[in-house]
Design a protein that fits this description.
Layout: H1 2-15, H2 17-33, H3 48-64, H4 68-74, H5 83-90, H6 94-120, H7 133-138, H8 152-171, H9 176-194, H10 197-213, H11 217-234, H12 236-243, H13 251-269, H14 280-287, H15 303-336, H16 342-361, H17 371-381, H18 383-400
Helix pairs in contact: 1-2, 1-6, 2-5, 3-4, 3-15, 5-17, 6-8, 6-9, 6-18, 8-9, 8-10, 8-16, 8-17, 10-11, 10-16, 11-12, 13-15, 15-16, 15-18, 16-18
Length: 401
């Protein structure tokens, strides 16, 4: 049962938020009431302190907002954080974790291939007016790759950590590369076709950082440069998009700067509990500077800024503590993995690089508030702790022997 539920979760994370959320609920119930082998390893609750602190302060910020009921409803996204523990408890060992990571990579690569077809056959007006309903739905707003998701930003947010997390396993070589490398290249091309610049920056940061730690760093770095160069040649529009990064004449850049200005003003005015979750959409029209192109928005396209505006400085501190705790503990796990266990090291390093890419991309987009993207990041976050559990069990077994 657990195996089938993990398969359903993999498919849901790649293509359907409804399937992934429903599967997580069923999987959580199964883990509580289902059969448990007598020799099953003890599963801990890593990062519980910072996660609980963030959740508690979010509720406090919601109750302190001018519209507490509305803010509490907006704060229901806290339940998504539980996916971290569900995945951690559902994966019995590192081999299962590797199968899960590989399955998720394959599923998302298939969606990436579909998204390339989506853009390739997209009409000039960006939509299909006739044909079967599934085709019309798939080809709706098809000018930028989005796969099965409602918007291209979500596809970019899902692809970024998954592509980065796969790099250490690809660097191991072997027969897997024969099929995994083409799938990875398909994913990179689909990421380019989303035209989401923040995701590109996150992918580059995570990929380069990951490559510098790998033993075959120059090979991986060379491959990354080659992939980017080929993508720019194949699709010249990507180069124009890259050149617009930081260009003050670009409308998107100017609008993001206006959001930054408004967000900092709100954070300074409400430093302790913020304005409350879900309240940006109500206050932004009142504080948006004259140069802002859009006069209303539900988020500020910057995760740390959104957190501090909604939850104040204590909320931001708790949110930062989650990631500090993750990287600190994952780094300790990486040191403990034997040098001979290349697959275990690749799993941990890939997870760390993926989370780094997720956080960097979040400087340009509120991906922490995108449930589909957050679920993927949380799932990848769980992998080092599965490896840690295996190490503890192996150590305990060695002592008992």
């Amino acid at each position: 049962m657990r195996g089938w539920l993990l398969l359903a979760l993999t498919l849901g994370l790649a293509a359907s938020i409804t399937l992934s959320e429903a599967t997580l609920v069923v999987l959580a119930v199964w883990l509580v009431v289902g059969p448990r082998p007598a020799e099953a390893p003890r599963v801990g609750w890593p990062l519980l302190g910072p996660l609980a602190a963030f959740a508690v302060w979010t509720v406090i910020a919601a109750l302190a907002s001018p519209r507490p009921v509305e803010s509490l409803v907006a704060a229901r996204g806290l339940l998504t954080l539980g996916a971290f523990y569900v995945v951690l408890h559902a994966l019995p060992d590192a081999r299962a974790a590797e199968r899960f990571a590989t399955g998720l990579f394959v599923a998302v690569a298939a969606v990436a291939l579909l998204s390339i077809v989506q853009v390739g056959f997209c009409p000039a007006d960006g939509t299909v007016a006739s044909g079967p309903a599934p085709v019309r739905l798939l080809m709706r707003k098809c000018a930028r790759a989005r796969g099965f998701f409602s918007i291209y930003m979500t596809l970019a947010g899902v692809l970024t950590p998954l592509l980065v997390s796969a790099l250490p396993r690809l660097a191991l070589g072997g027969r897997t590369v024969v099929w995994a490398l083409p799938a990875w290249l398909v994913g990179v091309l689909a990421l380019g076709l989303t035209s989401v610049r923040g995701a590109w920056v996150g992918f580059a940061t995570g990929g380069v950082g990951c490559a510098l730690i790998l033993r075959r760093r120059w090979l991986v770095l060379g491959a990354l440069v080659l992939v980017v160069a080929v993508a720019l040649v194949v699709e010249p529009g990507l180069l124009r998009r890259v050149k617009s990064v930081g260009d003050l004449a670009d409308d998107t850049t100017r609008d993001r700067l206006a959001m930054l200005d408004a967000g900092l003003g709100l954070a300074i005015a409400h430093p302790i509990t913020g304005i409350g979750p879900g309240q940006v959409k109500r206050l932004y029209p009142l504080v948006a500077p004259p140069e802002a192109l859009r006069r209303s928005t539900s988020h500020l396209h910057d995760t740390p800024l959104q957190i501090v505006v909604e939850r104040g400085l204590p909320g931001l501190a708790a949110w930062i503590a989650i990631w500090v705790g993750f990287f600190g503990r994952a780094a300790r796990v990486l040191k403990r993995v034997p040098a001979t266990d290349e697959r275990g090291r690749a799993l941990v390093l890939g997870s760390m690089a993926a989370v780094a890419a997720f956080l960097v991309a979040g400087l340009f987009e509120y991906n922490f508030g995108d449930t589909e993207v957050l679920l993927v990041a949380l799932s990848l976050m769980a992998l080092p702790f599965v490896v840690e559990r295996d190490l503890a069990q192996a150590q305990a077994t060695g002592r008992s022997d």
